[in-house]
User: Fold this.
Amino acid sequence: MSDKLKNPDEVEDVDMEGGDSTTEKKLQPQSLDHSFGSEPVSTIEIIPTGKFTKYREQGFKAKDTDLHGTQMESAFEQELSMMEHDAATADEQDTSKYGRIVLPGDFSSATHDISFQQIDAEQSILNGGFKDNNTSTVVRFFGVTSEGYSVLCNVTGFKHYLYVPQPNSDDAKDPQQRERFLNYLNEMFDNGVDSIEVVEKQSIWGYSGDGKLPFWKVLVTYPSLINKLRTGFEKGHYTYNSWFSNGTTTYDNIAYPLRLMVDCGIVGMSWITLPKGKYTLIPDNKKLSTCQLELTINYKDLVAHPAEGDWSHMAPLRILSFDIECAGRIGVFPEPEEDPVIQIANVVSVAGAKKPFIRNVFTVNSCSPITGSQVFAHDKEEDMLRHWRQFILEADPDVIIGYNTTNFDLPYLINRARALKVEEFPFFGRLKTVKQEIKDTIFSSKAYGTRESKNINIDGRLQLDLLQFAQREYKLRSYTLNAVSAHFLGEQKEDVHYSIITDLQNGDSETRRRLAVYCLKDAYLPLRLLEKLMGLVNYTEMARVTGVPFSYLLSRGQQIKVVSQLFRKCIQIDTVIPNMSSQASDEQYEGATVIEPIRGYYDVPIATLDFNSLYPSIMMAHNLCYTTLCNKATVERLKLTKDEDYVITPNGDYFVTSKIRRGILPIILDELINARKRAKKDLKNEKDPFKRDVLNGRQLALKISANSVYGFTGATVGKLPCLAISSSVTSFGREMIMLTKNAVQDKYSKANGYENDAIVVYGDTDSVMVKFGTNDLKEAMALGTEAAAYVSTLFKNPINLEFEKAYFPYLLINKKRYAGLYWTNPDKYDKLDQKGLASVRRDSCSLVSIVMNKVLKKILIERNVNGALEFVKKTIDDILHNRVDISKLIISKTLAPNYVNPQPHAVLSERMKKRDGMGPNVGDRVDYVITGGNDKLYNRAEDPLYVLEHNIQIDSKYYLTNQLQNPIISIIAPIIGEKQANSMFVVKSIKISTGETKGGLMGFVKKVASCKGCRGPLKKGEGPLCANCQSRSGELYIKALYDIRDLEEKYARLWTECQRCAGTLHNEVLCSNKNCDIFYMRVKVKKELQEKMEQMSKW
Amino acid sequence: MDSLLQKFNETRDDDPETIERITINEKYDAKNRFALDYKDRDYSSQFYHMYKYRLVTFKERVNRECLKRWDNGFELKGNPVVKKEKVLDIQGNQPCWCIGTIYCEMKYKPNILEEVVNDTYGAPDLVKSYMDPEGADEIMLEDESGRVLLVGDFIKSTPFITGTVVGVLGMEADAGTFQVLDICYPAAIPQKPLSLPTDKKNHGKIALVSGLNIKPTSPENSLRVQLLQEFLMGRLNSNISSDLSNIGKLIICGNSMDFNVKSDSPGSLTNSLEEFGKFLGNTLQSISIALMPGAGDPSDRSLPQQPLHKALFKEALRPYFDKMNNEILNLVTNPYQFNINGIELLAIAGQNINDIHKYVISSQDLDSNSEVEKTDLEHRLDLMECTLKWQNIAPTAPDTLWAYPYKDFDPFVLDEWPHVYVVGNQPEFGTRDVTLNGGTKIKIISIPEFSSTGGIVLLDLNTLETELVQIEL
Amino acid sequence: AEEKINSYINEKLLTEVKPVLFTDLISQFKLGPSKAKKSMYSYYKFTSTSNVNFNCILMCCYKDGTVKLRSDLNNATNEMDEEQDNLTDCFIYAFNPMEEFIPVNSVIEQMNALTIRNPFKLATSTLEEVKPIQPQMRSKTT
Assistant:
């Protein structure tokens, strides 16, 4: 082995150094020990070998065409290699690797194109008398080039505008009169109106013939004027020649930055090229930003690239994830006015890279070094805050992420800096003189609900809070970082309670290192979640598909995305969009159809026929759009032919067919669907993992966008509500579902020669569930496929009914509540599918979902109804005999500030504060179990740990009747009948009342040692058994011994597992993560084992 | 066949008078480091105390050895090598050495959290190896400050096992990783002087057996145990009875019963105990026994296992369990350290090696460059040698080998090296004379599982030589 | 004495249909192992001319310390002839009337029949003889 490791060159080197006897002398002792397990010292090079160096991929694949100087790429990679080679050189003060690579000295507008991915856009004004095309207003695009240079691009010369219809009178056609009107306006608006142009446009709203009409395009010098100008037109304030005295509709109400993006063809997160010679670099002394390249360019000169093909890659965006630790007072959640920030951990990675390239932690007071990370210790908190701000400016992240950073970490830092009077702290955006401010916002949306949040302006840096991302995109029982990590990353996380943090801080540099390691983990997890959930990739593709800036995706609802797409499509066909009044309307329309379910347990295959993208396909098939909507009068005036030139929808609305005019919405939908097909096809052929992620994000974004178009039309509080479209869509949907049901039942009947009569057992919105009657799954699938194809022929293209899956067996409980074994091929089922059941209700204990899933598994997978019933009985028995692990009985609720009525968790919080001196705070989740007794329910909520420590009795009846009974009965009643299902619980409930009760007298009973065998009292001095049981001593000892053995193993396994999770063998496990499945188990086993040992000592 | 029978049985010698068995001197007054009374147990602490005790104990020993090996002035490629007091003090671009505990993160280690989440807790443990064949497992060096990932080719050629405390020489290769160039074990510990008697006439021996795995439902097993009884009583081979009387004691190294509480009915253990009781009742009339519990015996699940309790056996046998009769039946712990005729022996029922084996079982498969294919026996003897070198006979406790949570103590840490190291319940018999650091010599003996091999090991107390007697069916 | 032994073997083997081990003779008739082995052989010779339905189980002792039980005698005859240079002893361990050989062990006071005696004597504590006093009154709790 040793010979193989020798490097011939090294041997020669040693020979050349032959005179160095000292070295030889030092090396010799090592090779004396030839026994097993100790190899001679290796002579290999002490530098990292290939397999241990950092990953070199930066995650983005820049095409050659993207680069206009291969020298730059080469320089960048060389710099990066040097960084990686020295990565392990974590000198305390060496931060040279933080900054971006330096611009080439010869960089100039005359010689270099600039292509950058823009990540954010905002409106601004250039000062100093700058004017381009009579306007000083610019849109700022922040971005990054392929090489990694940061860019601030001021797009100049673009004037905001609106449209109004040209007045009907003859004098309105006179250019001189128009000029006078312009002057009239400018007297009111201080010469802010730049010009009026006459253009031929058509309105998106309604069809009334094919002609375009003259519109006046009114351009303004200052975008802020546009709203006042619009109001004047709409309310009839302009009395000049009585043209607009009655008020007129204005068109194209859109924000200035989005207006520019639409007109220039710029979508969110797309690439822009600035041709050399066309832009002007701003010298360093005049820069407003910290970007390496700050420049101006006229909007006509920039080249906007569609985000496809070569321009679909991501720039090397820098992503910063950080976490702060605060020292709190006993029993008080940290407050920035009082409690210091003691540590800030930072991890910086490049988008697509496998590992971060910066890992550091800022601390107050000394902290021992951490291998693989940098530690910056400070004597004072103020110094740390200043240093951290400097770090942000130097690392210059494009994206700032974290977990709850929007509502906690960032506001806390800013408020803490204010309390300490660190005046320069809140200036860490990319604009040097713009201060970060905290604003409270309330976001309300039908899709996402209502959430209060804070908003902080960090210009030029995207913010992505993983907590908000998870809340928006996923439905989970809990959104703690522990729960989310466990769910998506498959790993538990040690959770240190905030009360312990202060003790670690007040220890020494070793304990502060312990805290710092923990803090670094918390900073690293959001980065891993972002990668795992593909948050950045998916949101980037959504921004590209819909055309909105990235920042809109977190702060705005769905409507802005459809608005953006509408405007982009309309500009191509000379169409303008009226500014509708946003008024809440009481008008309602009929929704989707639900075919009444034939409830029961089906032990035969149930085929599911699904319409593919039903609402989008209805809109496309019947050409439903703003532009195709007409009415009876128009139809008669133009002498249109029914069903050829126009259709009447089932609810009575008129739409012209595509023969007359193709609607914009159908065109948008068609393009989205085709783009998705292309993306999926490209995805199939793509090998590069990161590229595959991008394509997958793209196709998902396209799917979501297509589905949101229908919702846009039906939003009564919306930008462009049109109930005629949405109600027509649903009326077609209802008609189609019923038609499908009848067609299937008519065709697949004994009368037509089939073996069985088909029965539609359920239907909802866009799917129909059919029992064909056959027991053979393969045959049922074949019939389903055939039926879907047949029904599809009854409808217009592209409406398509597909056979997608069969349920076998199938448990149909009620509308929108069912479960079944899901098959897409006859050989193996895909999964157990369920809808509307209580499995994920957050106010149940986890036992409910555990039992429900188990019962469903036994019924549907094992086909063992009796086994399921036995399991239910056993569970009931376990509950009655207190054999259920307490973690399964925990109910969890968030503590709100005020309650009208007493709530169990609120009462418990008060009790804990009185009892322990501290307890949950507002906003914390409170875990509790319901204990026995005759008190009111809200007084019987108790902390699970307290229950375990004090052997308090659980209220079994509560868990049976209030938690478990209804969900379980809803599953088994369709199988065995309502009466029998209820009896399983009722009988037991009677028995409960005869159970043991805790009376006050029990407290006075003297504790007497009892016989291990028969529980009878023992006389003083007797061993563990009474005289009668002595003969059974062997048998009884064995039983006691094996209880001990089981507990010993359980104890050892639980606590070693906790050590592994904590990532340390030598330190105490401090975890207080109650979400973990074994947290309460380990508390309980410790207690039980101690008790059993004391009993064993009596043998 | 008839001729053979005639040859031996026609003119058989007369029976000699009853011979009294040789007396060997075992010390009984020594304090047993592995004793653990029920009433003294405390489960309020966690396992980190044991690791702290190990690190404190071994750090001093390893440090002495490291200073000898890599003393001041030692250089690697022109760079001075420095000592790092703590693991997280390791910095880049600087060759250094550091002392810490090895921790292995392995894919197939038992994971109760996973079992609870997947609702498979309580299912039988079928894992034969913890190792991930795809090589995703990680080896780390840890102390109270934190841990670093160990990398390099060196760690593939040397067993790195969770719980061992070593010194490693190398350099930070990548952020948070340490490339290992050399390794250092604890400095030598004392061994009591061994003076074997020169009187060759008195050939005292002890018999070592393990893995009886008594199971009344297995006739073959019962027959084998009965033959063992007859052999020890001197009835099978009359010609060597005088030799057999030199066997002064039988040491049963665990797993006397084969009992899995989850699969067998409650009556099975009672039957096994009854059968074992008969064996004891008969054999004790002829030879003294020291009885160790093993993994399958009705004793603790955690190490160290405490002696079997008299309540397990019938009334007639209970007198043997009295303290005053421990010369006849000595109920001992697992592990068990004892002194016979001045020879220090350390015996363990084999759980330690069987667990460590799961950490390295695939190393030979992975090492395609291996020119010598070691047998499993050689491999296990290597591991036994390693535990002596590590000076910890159960390093993987408590991580994967369940153990009692000692506070400020670890009984598996050796303060003295024994003369003989006995490991029971192994697949094969094996023996090796090892020479450790400083020239210390120790005899390693691998005791085979009797129920599958029929092997009984005889250890000569004068020469420390071993011989294997095999009972075949 | 030989007749008594043969009669005992007959009774157990034919009437009770149970296996007979040479150790049974040791404990029943207080024989030494050598004598017991001889007696087994005598019985074997005595019955070899009769049509008796039972199997012989042989015990072979080898020079290297191996002790081997053989029961498939027909197939093993040639093999044993080849081995005999290594044999140090060979005797009949048991007569088995059944298909399967299931030995039954039992605790027997054997002090008079021991080949090798344990030098330590079992001490009996008088405390063990004291039985717990029966309680005069039991609790009615149960």
Q: What stands out?
A: The two ends of chain B are 18 Å apart (CA to CA). DSSP finds eleven helices and 20 strands in chain B.
